[in-house]
Amino acid sequence: MVGSESRGALVDEPPMTRVSVPEADRLIGVKQPVLAHGFVVLVDYMGNDAAIVQAARVSYGRGTKTVRDDRGLVRYLMRHRHTTPFEMVEYKFLVRLPIFVARQWVRHRASSLNEYSARYSVVPDEYEVPLPEEVRHQSTRNRQGRGDALPAEVVERFRSDLDSLSKEAYDAYTRALDAGVARETARLLLPVAFYTQWYWKINLHNLLHFLSLRLDPHAQEEIRLYAAEVAKLARVVCPVAFEAFEEFQVEGVNLGRRERRALRALLEGKSVPEACALAGLPLTREDGKPMTTGEGVEFLEKLERIRGVE
Ligand SMILES: Cc1cc2nc3c(=O)[nH]c(=O)nc-3n(C[C@H](O)[C@H](O)[C@H](O)COP(=O)(O)OP(=O)(O)OC[C@H]3O[C@@H](n4cnc5c(N)ncnc54)[C@H](O)[C@@H]3O)c2cc1C
Question: How do beta strands 112-115 and 136-138 pair?
Answer without folding.
Answer: unpaired
